[in-house]
Amino acid sequence: MASIIQVENVSKVYDGGFRALDDVNLSIEEGEILALLGPNGAGKTTLISIICGLVNLTSGSVSVGGHDTIRDYRAARSLIGLVPQEIALEPFQKVLDGLRFTRGLYGKPADPDFLENVLRRLSLWDKRDSMTSELSGGMKRRVLIAKALCHQPKVLFLDEPSAGVDVELRKDMWEVIRQLRAEGVTIILTTHYIEEAEAIADRVGIISKGKILLVEDKDTLVRRMGHREMRIELLEPLASLPDTLAKYSLAQSEDRCTLVYSYEANGERTGIMSLFNDLNAAGIKLRDVDTRQSSLEDIFVSLIEDKPEART
């Protein structure tokens, strides 16, 4: 699949010497959903702002649809829709009038049918004649998305789109995002909700301290870096582990009634059968066994904390 956004060796250093981005390279494929994860101050919003032309880069280059964002900024920006983190709307403007105005700013001809379709998809059609000041926070967030879509961009940036949105509204927005991707729109979102990335992203990028730590297919990432944890409930408390079980690095619960065994999710040899055989040989009786797959959140936390095992 062709790349629609190319970020090459981009750095951003602010006055005073703060380095917000440090030699960032990123290729975003046409028609994908990329979730960009990172703690506060990691550089997510700075990177998006540079791609969208809102912040000047210090070094490097960015292209959108083959257009350099500096040399050919008009063509590059015409391909981009941005939903900012902050809700900044004209309070005394009607919703539909706001969309008409924004579409006109991009030099697009009037298209009432298209704008009606955008508003209906976002459950805003019945609010079309409402002042934005009359809307709830969640509805205002939807208006921002509608305004970003009104000039029919090829790329949509969503900076913390679910901030201040309740769970039901959030899931509705996820469905809208999936529909846009199905229509060929490339979507890049930053989020603090790990479950949001797990639910809708095709690929995940993790950024910390201005550096991209990795960009990888979500499912491949979980398989490659994930761990499984098996919890073995015992019929009777085990005062101490026999020497024959020392090689498994088992953890015990405080009540001594549960053993916890961790192993690689994609490992060829998990050691489970050997463990069960040794438990049986030691006369240890089992009540129940349960397994848990590590989540994207576990992987994210391990990378941000810079644990050596997370990079292997």
UniProtKB/TrEMBL annotation:
Molecular functions (GO terms): ATP binding
Domain ABC transporter, first and last residues per copy: 5-234
Name this polypeptide is given: ABC transporter ATP-binding protein
Family note: Belongs to the ABC transporter superfamily.
Pfam family, any one: ABC_tran
InterPro entries referenced in this protein's UniProt entry, alphabetically: AAA+_ATPase, ABC_transporter-like_ATP-bd, ABC_transporter-like_CS, ABC_transporter_ATP-binding
Keyword Transport listed: yes
Coiled coil: none
Lineage start: Bacteria, Pseudomonadati, Pseudomonadota, Alphaproteobacteria, Hyphomicrobiales
Keywords assigned: ATP-binding, Nucleotide-binding, Transport
